[in-house]
Design brief:
By secondary structure, the protein is α/β, with parallel strands linked by helices. The chain has one domain: Alpha-Beta Barrel (TIM Barrel), CATH 3.20.20.70. It has an eight-stranded parallel β-barrel with strand order 1-2-3-4-5-6-7-8, surrounded by six helices. Helix 7 runs parallel beside helix 8. The radius of gyration is 17 Å and the shape is globular. The mean pLDDT is 95.
């Protein structure tokens, strides 16, 4: 199974920095990388990055979308708008959307459904808060997020869906789940996904780890058999650090 390495720039980046990033990635050989590479920049950079990203062998994604195609939805962006700007992917249910913005499981499901129906590929993010982890609710929370997002959803190919397990307590904190814990959770996510979507689809969906992934810990995390990639935050903002993570992924 081919790894997918995603870079979530969050609310960071500018046109000059984005251009330099893509130039450096191309120079390092990103177009022939063994892993699939997807960058999720701010919406304002998508159109300018589209052509140089294609040349560098890098796909682009939106950090969010709305479930309607047009209308009186101030501040939102539709699936079609993302596609027109050059995006092929989108994030659904990132922990910062869930816990800072207040998106519910119902909203995440609506966004996931709309984006997939529009022909975009999705990274569905799931993960537990520290207090949920400490009270022994990790499995309950993550399985619940998965089932809410995926049960009854229309036909989905395994190539159009990636699941990112991102323990919320590890995002931007410098803390990381141990490789053994990541392996355990990814194995459970695989079991739950297969039970929801069937073996053909659920068995082929890639499951990424997200949570303070850096060049120094990427190889150990990605070596676990149930980990099929990484969703990288801060370390994706610089080509040098991000490329080291891509190299650590190898071919899966």
């Amino acid at each position: 199974m081919k790894y997918m390495i995603g870079g979530n720039w969050k609310m960071n980046g500018d046109p000059h920095g984005a251009s330099e990033f893509l130039h450096r990635m191309a120079g390092k050989g990103s177009s022939s990388a063994a892993a699939d590479i997807v960058i999720f920049p701010p919406f304002t950079l998508l159109a300018a990055m589209a052509e140089p990203a294609r040349s560098a062998g890098i796909a682009l994604g939106g950090q969010d979308l709305f479930w309607e195609e047009k209308g009186a939805y101030t501040g939102e962006i539709s699936p079609g708008m993302l596609r027109e700007a050059g995006a092929q992917w989108f994030l659904a249910g990132h922990s910062e959307r869930r816990h800072l913005i207040g998106e519910t499981d119902t909203i995440v499901r609506k966004k996931l459904d709309a984006g997939l129906k529009a022909g975009l590929k999705a990274v569905l993010c799931v993960g537990e808060l520290l207090e949920q982890r400490e009270t022994g609710r990790t499995e309950e929370v993550v399985e619940g997020q998965l089932r809410s997002a995926l049960e009854g959803i229309g036909p989905v190919s395994s190539s159009s869906l990636v699941i990112a397990y991102e323990p919320v307590w590890a995002i931007g904190t410098g803390l990381t789940a141990t490789p053994d814990e990541a392996q355990r959770m990814h194995s459970l996510i695989r079991e739950w996904t297969v039970s929801i979507m069937g073996e053909d689809t659920g068995g082929g969906v890639r499951i990424q780890y997200g949570g303070s992934v850096k060049p120094g810990n990427a190889a150990e995390i990605l070596a676990r058999p149930s980990v099929n990639g990484a969703l990288v935050g801060g370390a994706s903002l610089k080509a040098e650090s991000f490329w080291k993570i891509v190299q650590a992924a190898g071919s899966g």
